[in-house]
Design brief:
The complex is a heterodimer of chains A (407) and B (304).
Chain A: E1 18-27, E2 30-40, E3 45-49, H1 56-64, E4 71-76, E5 79-80, E6 91-94, H2 106-116, H3 122-132, H4 148-160, E7 166-170, H5 178-195, E8 198-203, H6 206-212, E9 215-220, E10 223-228, H7 230-235, H8 240-245, E11 250-259, E12 263-268, E13 271-276, E14 286-291, E15 297-299, E16 309-322, E17 326-332, E18 338-344, E19 357-363, E20 368-369, H9 389-406
Parallel strand pairs in A: 3-8, 3-9, 6-7, 7-8
Antiparallel strand pairs in A: 1-2, 1-4, 4-5, 9-10, 11-12, 11-14, 12-13, 14-20, 15-19, 16-17, 16-19, 17-18
Chain B: H1 8-20, H2 22-49, E1 53-54, E2 63-64, H3 70-109, H4 116-127, H5 134-145, H6 150-157, H7 171-195, H8 199-207, H9 212-240, H10 259-268, H11 273-297
Antiparallel strand pairs in B: 1-2
Helix pairs in contact in B: 3-7, 3-9, 3-11, 7-9, 8-9, 9-11, 10-11
Classes of the chains: A alpha+beta (407), B mainly alpha (304).
Chain lengths: 407, 304
């Protein structure tokens, strides 16, 4: 380990910047990552979010040094580590499978990295790290004697104890039940602010990414679709993939029929939808626009046309699912697919029922215009989702989970 | 047994099931009867034979029951060298079999993991020698090592062997034969553990600053330990008692006689049954002690 980035006996002072420059990774038969550029500033909590098979785990493995990129460079703290082996990089990973050594005690597991680097008081530091995850009392046990959640915390302690410049988390909360996940999410966040490392978190769980990360990058088909603060991504998705993967969206496709200094108006199968210009990626031709379900209100009488409000309808409620805090309605309007609407259950009298005739209204500033090429076929004005079925399944699961949590 | 060495929790669960179920005891019955009939009975008979004394004025090979402890003193005095030699040869053969078998098992179990067809083919090749009789294979090596054979010819040419010297009948040929015959017994248990080795643990080792060599020493090898221990036991125990390789008719000579060869000669040629029985008991006792120490020192008491 003479010219490695990991020096013996000392820790990274703080998190380090991570820079990926033109990274590609091709496996025989398919491309996992295509010309990816990514910069993660030191000390940030960065989440890479995407469906399974989008290349996010490959990206993580490339950074950890477990795979070699086909092209491109990886820089950690400004140092090119592309050609170095995993054990030479100042990076630690919390593996999805935890990968705890079954033949060692918990303490030995946590002290493993320290011992390899010749840190003197490895045992004391390992105990400290175990205290941080509140598991010091099981330090003499074997991993097989711990529960999934405890193993996960040990895996975290084993990585954090090395004070790596960059900590990689590969869906570490995937195997935990809801309550434990919540606890771990908070703990992870605490540890991150306490030790000030750079965290790169890879997950398919949009909720996990949004609650924990400062910056979320949504990845699809080996490329980053959009990157930004969680709220920013949610309020103003740039592509249909982001709009539907990160939460739910109602999307409408149509020609831009009018445009003024502030906004554009789209005609989608008779529904006229106005989008503020700063929120529209494309301002002419065939575009796809959308709105989040919770931004839409239902009215049972035709509302008066007013500036600053989009009105679509009438339609019929085709499904109602009550979940305590809110009610999810599905509205079918001629020429459009089902549109979902979330209403807070603030008053009983506002409940709508299956088959009721309703109009949808939402404030113009809640609309967003997407960058995708619109659908050219006029008889299918709704945006057709072309995401792989796995992502749809994952999304459905995430939605169900979110709903479960609300209820 | 050997493979569950590192899963204490599972064993606890098993124990609790056994306690609750009388059916388990019932199912054990055929095994217990088998053990009593075919293990305990011959063992007792052997013990009794080892204490017999010759009938005074009787025929050659006629003995009667007694309590002649001197038989043990006699065999240890007479055959001490052969006994020590047996364990020395067996230990060497186990070591060589391990040195050859481990890389082989690693190659088949880990390197070839992504190629199931090649993996199966290599496994068949490891087992293939079993399709030919043990005796024939050992005889074949005698032919290969014979004075007119290719190996001896080559060794004479480069000057390792002097004129008239042979390879057969030397310690080398006996240890070679033992190693050769027991390589599959070493390879297969190690393969069984390496084949199931979670490679993500090896990746984790690399991620935690361990170089490939350190990862092998601290992760791969300890996880393969149950296989290594099973393999060495499966090699060492039968090799110590082996009477084919060291025999004059095969790869050995009188100078390379092992305890098995001596027991065979006492039973079948000298008809000194008490001596043969006493030697067998000694062999068994020494193996038990050696294996006990070995397993204890390997830190896997769960094996016993």
């Amino acid at each position: 380990m003479t010219n490695s980035a990991v020096s013996r006996g000392d820790f990274a002072e703080a998190g380090a910047d991570l820079e990926l420059v033109g990274i590609s990774k091709r496996f025989p038969g398919f491309t996992a990552i295509d010309d990816l550029d990514l910069t993660i500033p030191a000390g940030s909590f960065f989440a890479l979010l995407g469906p399974s098979g989008c290349g996010k785990t490959t990206t993580l493995r490339l950074i950890a040094g477990l795979e070699e990129p086909t092209a491109g460079r990886i820089l950690i703290g400004g140092k090119d580590v592309t050609r170095t082996k995993a054990f030479q990089r100042p990076v630690n990973t919390v593996f999805q499978s935890y990968a705890l050594f079954p033949h060692m005690t918990i303490l030995e597991n946590v002290a493993f990295g320290l011992k390899r680097r010749g840190v003197k008081d490895a045992t004391r530091l390992a105990h400290e790290a175990l205290q941080l995850v509140e598991l010091d009392h099981v330090s003499a046990r074997r991993p097989s004697q711990l529960s999934g959640g405890q193993q996960q915390r040990v895996a975290l302690a084993r990585a954090v104890v090395n004070r790596p410049a960059l900590l990689l988390l590969d869906e570490p909360l995937g195997a935990l039940d809801l309550k434990l996940r919540r606890q771990m999410q908070i703990e992870l966040k605490d540890i991150q602010s306490e030790v000030g490392l750079t965290f790169l978190h890879v997950t398919h769980d949009q909720e996990e990414a949004m609650t924990m990360a400062d910056t979320v990058a949504v990845m699809n088909k080996g490329q980053i679709e959009q990157m930004g603060a969680p709220q920013e991504l949610y309020e103003l998705p740039r592509t249909a993939f982001v709009a539907t993967f990160l939460g739910q969206s109602n999307l409408f496709t149509g020609q831009v029929v009018s445009s003024n200094a502030d906004s554009i108006t789209v005609d989608s199968a008779g529904a006229r939808i106005t989008v503020p210009k700063p929120r529209a990626e494309r301002q002419s031709g065939l575009v796809t626009v959308g709105v989040r379900p919770e931004k839409v209100s239902l009215t049972s009488t035709k509302p008066a046309e007013a500036a600053g409000v989009n009105v679509v309808g009438p339609g019929r409620i085709s499904d109602v699912s009550f979940s305590g805090v809110s009610t999810q309605y599905e509205v079918t309007i001629a020429g459009h697919g089902p549109i979902s609407v979330f209403e807070q259950n603030t008053s009983i009298s506002r409940m709508h029922h299956d088959g009721d005739e309703v109009w949808l209204t939402w404030s113009v500033e809640h609309s967003f215009g997407l960058a995708d090429e619109g659908d050219v076929e006029h008889d299918a004005p709704r945006f057709v989702d072309d995401t792989p079925t796995t992502s749809i399944a994952t999304r459905k699961r995430a939605q169900l989970k979110a709903e479960l949590e609300e209820g | 047994m050997a493979f569950s060495a590192f899963t204490p929790t599972e064993q606890k669960a098993d124990a609790s099931i056994q306690k609750r179920s009388p059916v388990a005891l019932l199912l054990l019955l055929p095994g217990v009867i088998f053990l009593v009939l075919f293990f305990v009975t011959p063992l007792l008979s052997l013990l009794l034979t080892s204490l017999q004394e010759p009938v005074p004025g009787g025929f050659f090979g006629e003995y009667r029951q007694a309590l002649r402890w001197e038989n043990y003193v006699f065999v240890l005095e007479t055959y001490g060298t052969q006994t020590l030699r047996s364990f020395g040869y067996a230990a060497l053969a186990s070591l060589f079999a391990l040195l050859i078998g481990f890389p082989l098992a690693y190659f088949i179990g880990i390197t070839l993991r992504r190629f199931p067809l090649l993996q199966a083919l290599c496994l068949v090749l490891v087992i293939a020698p079993f399709f030919i009789s043990f005796l024939l294979r050992t005889l074949a090596w005698k032919q290969i090592f014979a004075i007119e054979g290719p190996v001896a010819g080559f060794f004479s040419m480069i000057g390792i062997l002097g004129p008239g010297q042979s390879i057969t009948g030397t310690a080398f040929s006996v240890v070679f034969g033992l190693t050769y015959n027991f390589i599959p017994f070493m390879t297969l248990p190690i393969y069984a553990t390496l084949e199931r080795l979670d490679l993500r643990l090896v990746e984790a080792g690399g991620d935690l600053y361990a170089s490939p060599a350190t990862t092998f020493r601290t992760v791969t090898l300890p996880l393969a330990a149950p296989g290594v221990i099973s393999g060495t036991l499966l090699t060492f125990i039968p090799a110590s008692g082996d009477y084919i390789n060291a025999s004059r008719d095969f790869l050995g000579s009188t100078e390379t006689a092992m305890i098995g060869t001596v027991i065979e000669a006492n039973f079948l040629v000298l008809q000194n049954y008490p001596a043969a029985a006493a030697l067998s008991i000694v062999l068994m006792a020494v193996i038990l002690v050696l294996v006990g120490i070995y397993v204890k020192r390997s830190g896997t008491e769960d094996l016993l």
